[in-house]
């Protein structure tokens, strides 16, 4: 045995050396914490943490600390990303680590964690390298829910929902012309009623009723059964193929309700930004109008078959989402396992914020990022954003305004068509402009006075709406009346 001892010792030393070398090879020499503003013991950056419109400060800090930096608040690490490449690398390429959600305590308590947008998904470690999403029941629910969402919101299904979107757009324009002071309500009604009709198959005369039914539906599962007998809708789609999606009643109720929630307030916010932008940039309103006149003409209203022929409408819609992102800091993604990025430590449990406000103002991609300039999607000169051919691009499909990685918004196709038809119908029928005083002077409007929350929209402002021709409003009114029972 004695003669083997040096041999065993040599083997042991070789193994230790190998382990050491592998570890050195796999790790950068120094793993540092991400840069970021200096905090205080225990509370970290709590005092400096912006209490409203955090996206503005997150961008400002980004200009000092670089495209990725960290903040700490009471021991929780926030990783803030201000450029698209880093966000893609972490949230998309390493999506298996970066697709969890924060514990939104209140919502989790109220929904049992079943709101699809915040439900946790966990990643499974395999020999230290994490490749796959864990197949535990909580993840399984998210996967089944996403499968269902993809099937009702996918690009081949969305044209099915066009007539409802078009109908709500006509009703919105007619009322907007009659009483622009209530614009928020008209836009909200268009968004909510389209969503309730698509989700539950129910036509609603007003937004209040929409809210009432939505609450009842999420609380009482049997409502879905009744409503699923109505015209084609997400609920009916599920009830006809429930075996295929393998979602139980309760699960389906939450998935469908989350789709309603995701779909109702978001396009509304962009449409409010549209009204504000048209007051400030009448030159773009003219370009929109000229394009619609040339392609659609004055005899008929635009419809969703025109989408490929109206690139300026699509460019305006995409620029609105860039310039005034609806969800300016996105929904944070929780990191499942410790990670390293370019020599920096990203700890498990950190919340990664892809700051859309900053990402959408990255200098190389979006020169003069604070300017509203739809040209950047239309002109070859903007090589970073322009894409051929104009019959297809610009498109807002998979644009970073809808998030990045596995948790990307499943509703972007529906949103694209809803925004298109609302903008095209409004611009076909009427001009939006700043209000004037009795002396004929334009009343100034703030360029950026927006609410602060998960979503952000312009605070109430007033503008005038002037129909190009009374006949056009009549055409839309007739279209609404014909489509009333869709
Ligand atoms: C202008 C319109 C919209 C915008 C800007 C928007 C934006 C977003 C963003 C930023 C996220 C978070 C993505 C992430 O975590 O990376 C999200 C998630 C989500 N959105 Fe949208 N959305 C819009 C419309 C819609 C519509 C029309 C629906 C449904 C019909 C919808 C349903 C959802 C759902 C279910 C999620 C959660 C996905 C998950 O966590 O797995 N959204 N959306």
TrEMBL record:
It holds the Pfam family p450. It comes from the Eukaryota. Keywords: Heme, Iron, Membrane, Metal-binding, Monooxygenase, Oxidoreductase, Transmembrane, Transmembrane helix. Its cofactor is heme. Gene3D superfamilies: Cytochrome P450 (1.10.630.10). The chain crosses the membrane at residues 6-22. The keyword Disulfide bond does not apply. Heme binds at residue 409. GO terms for molecular function: heme binding; iron ion binding; monooxygenase activity; oxidoreductase activity, acting on paired donors, with incorporation or reduction of molecular oxygen. InterPro entries: Cyt_P450 (IPR001128), Cyt_P450_CS (IPR017972), Cyt_P450_E_grp-I (IPR002401), Cyt_P450_sf (IPR036396), Cytochrome_P450_fung (IPR050364). Belongs to the cytochrome P450 family. This is Cytochrome P450.
